[in-house]
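User: Hello, can you help with two protein structures?

Assistant: Certainly.
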Amino acid sequence: MEEQYKISDPRVLKAVAHPLRVRLLGLLRTDGPATASELGRKVGESSGSTSYHLRELFKYGFIEEDADRRDGRERRWRPRHRYTSWDAVEMSATAEGREAVKIIHLRQAEMVGRVMEEFDVADWPREWVDASGMSDHILILPPAALAEFKKKAEELLLELADRYAGDPDARKVHVWLGAVPRTPPSQEGP
């Protein structure tokens, strides 16, 4: 599996921004290869619907057939990349690109909400509950500081994943990193 899929075409970003497609791709990335029927049961859709959206994800290069684990009756799909990325400035050079970036950001926020809705502290031991959660901070920072934070946070996550690889207490976890300025420069006061 490749590390990342760097998108520069807004049509490709819009293709994955469909609510069901982004969920299917996320499930393939987190839970591993699956058939349209298996995914349909997870998301409450028909296998015909999930099959159509999986073919669209295939068409745009997000997934591939899993030849190692063939199912006799239907295709088993797997992700081609660990994650998807794009240059927001480059992508936003056109109205179509700005719309695609906005839609995908909203889909990412929906996913965070869905994961938090599914998380029940009663299902987890205290050490997991204490270590997990969400917080938000409103700070005054220049772009350079925010870029530095993002870079260091990603480096730290990769370092921790490497350090704790193979730990018997390790589980798949969702980690989100998001930061946006609060007020456009044109609307700021003196």
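That covers the first. Now for the second protein you mentioned:
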Amino acid sequence: MIAQLTGTVIAVGGTWVVLDLSGLGVRALCTPATVASVRVGEPTTLHTSLVVREDSLTLYGFTSPDERDAFELVQSASGIGPKIAQAVVSVLPPEELRVAISQGNVAALTRVPGIGPKGAQKMIIELKDRVNALGAVPNLSAGAASLPAEDWREQVASGLESLGWGGKDAHAAVERVAHLREEDPAVGIGDLMRAALKSLAR
């Protein structure tokens, strides 16, 4: 199991980060919060979870151990794979997830694309006794990742679609956060993703 990676960030996308580990480029799928916390050209540490399938090895990276633990915990619920688990952690930080499950908050869980009322109730039942192992969420850096001016809309929309939202909703969310890019051309893709997620979760 690869539990942690430390290297220099050499590329960033809507839901992924590539780290240079002494000449070896490793790509990890990440939440928008994690993407927003890194800068291209700077060293960073990702807490990781390796998902092994018959036809693939996929590495997921997180800013904190709590976020990684939440990702792994959610997958222990029946019917929840890594794609939905990543969407859960993207919409609900670990502490919010812990509270939602502990209090049986179905509405909070159904904000995640791919989780309906029945799925949320099932997750609450299966995880309620284990979710208190999750700690509080540390503050995340708001550092902006470098973002090409010409394709930020497509990157953000693609990232939202990979988390489970439909194309129409994803592009509508992009338009709702476009003013952030206009106000600050240096705003990072992770920050744009987080803003788009908030607009979708309302």
